[in-house]
Design a protein that fits this description.
With 225 residues, the protein is of the alpha+beta class. It has seven helices and ten strands. Helix 4 crosses helix 6. The longest helix has 24 residues.
């Protein structure tokens, strides 16, 4: 299968295209090779990450969580065809939200995270930029760094990244956001939620060092599932 369209966005690991097929928009996500990897590692990495992302999205969608539906998968080419979600990223509108809306959004994010983590899944890049407000519903996107793990450190990192993204854009609501998110998380997470929250706060106290480590972690072998 060949893809010669112009991407609408480029990320660290993938190019994004939007197509109109039979009066339906779909998103095409194509992972790309990197020159610093050997051809063999590129092949293994792309195939594995594409398979894992498709599997996780399908599992979460089947469980009733708000994520894009998977339409098709081409593992060898590193391509995913996904449902197009109309809406706006929270990172673009959080500054305009009322406090009541901030509370509703943060509660919804905490609920989603708890349900996701209860299935042994972490997102890996859980930020406001990867949550879309669509018709009053929150839809979580971009599971390119997601994986399976029973390590609460992975879950705590998700929550830390979300709060860090809130603080970077609208720091004055971070405390309110955290309170509502944590409350909803503890209700929806089917495990020792207090330990996850404790770990999240420990991560925050590590300061800038941990943020550098989080960025490095996305290319480590543990993300190849």
């Amino acid at each position: 299968m060949a893809y010669s369209l112009t991407p609408v966005a480029r990320g660290a690991e993938a190019e994004i295209y939007v197509l109109d097929l039979v009066n339906r928009k779909i998103v095409i996500k194509k992972r790309v090779s990197k020159p610093y990897r050997t051809p063999e590692f590129n092949r293994v990495f792309i195939t594995s990450r594409t398979r894992t992302e498709a599997k996780i999205l399908t599992e979460l969608y089947s469980a009733g969580l708000s994520v894009p539906a998977v339409i098709f998968v081409d593992e060898e080419e590193g391509v995913l065809g996904l449902e197009y979600v109309e809406g706006v990223r929270l990172s673009d509108i959080i500054e305009t939200l009322s406090i009541d809306d901030v509370k509703r959004v943060s509660s919804g994010i905490g609920y989603f995270a708890g349900k996701m983590h209860s299935r042994g899944i972490y997102h890996g890049d859980f930020t406001l930029a990867n949550v879309i407000l669509s018709g009053g519903k929150l839809v979580v996107i971009d599971f390119g760094l997601a994986g399976y793990s029973n390590d609460i450190e992975e879950y705590a990192i998700d929550l830390h990244l979300m709060l860090r993204s809130v603080h970077a854009i609208r720091p004055e609501v971070t405390h309110i956001f955290e309170s509502e998110m944590v409350s909803a998380y503890l209700e929806s997470y089917q495990g020792n939620g207090k330990e996850v929250i404790k770990r999240m706060r420990e991560i925050r106290t590590r300061g800038r060092y941990v943020d550098k480590e989080l960025r490095r972690a996305v290319i480590r072998g543990r993300y190849i599932g």
